[in-house]
Amino acid sequence: MELKLARTELSAKPKKITLEKIEEDVKKNGDVILYFDRENSHKDLMNMVDYFEEKGFSVYFREVKYGLDENDYIYEVHFLA
User: Fold this and answer.
1) How far, in Å, are 60, 69, 71, 72 from residue 19 at the CA level?
2) For 54-71, what is each residue's pLDDT tens digit?
3) What are the E-state strand segments in the chain?
4) H or E stretch covering 52
5) Which helix (H) or strand (E) holds 48?
6) CA angle 37, 51, 61 (to 5 degrees)
7) Alpha-carbon gap, residue 1 to 73, rounded angstroms
8) What is the tens place of the pLDDT at every residue in 24-57?
9) Which residues contact 37 (CB under 8 A, 6 or more apart)?
10) Confidence class of residue 10 from pLDDT cuts 50, 70 and 90?
């Protein structure tokens, strides 16, 4: 599964990352915080959380609002080994 990371600029396209790459980073670094773009479906992000919890990782997931418009949000996910 590929997910889109949060954009660093509004006009930029979001970069993609796979679950395998995230898992590799978490195993290597222990704790990882990633921000995901609002273009990801909530269902896909919940599937990602389930995937990592089944593998024994702790995952903290939340939606972060950064503006007044209802479309001004990203997803913040903490992965803990």
Assistant:
1) 16, 30, 25, 25
2) 999 999 999 999 889 888
3) 2-4, 16-18, 31-36, 58-65, 73-80
4) helix 42-54
5) helix 42-54
6) 45
7) 22
8) 999 999 999 999 999 999 999 999 999 999 999 9
9) 4, 5, 6, 7, 14, 74, 75
10) confident
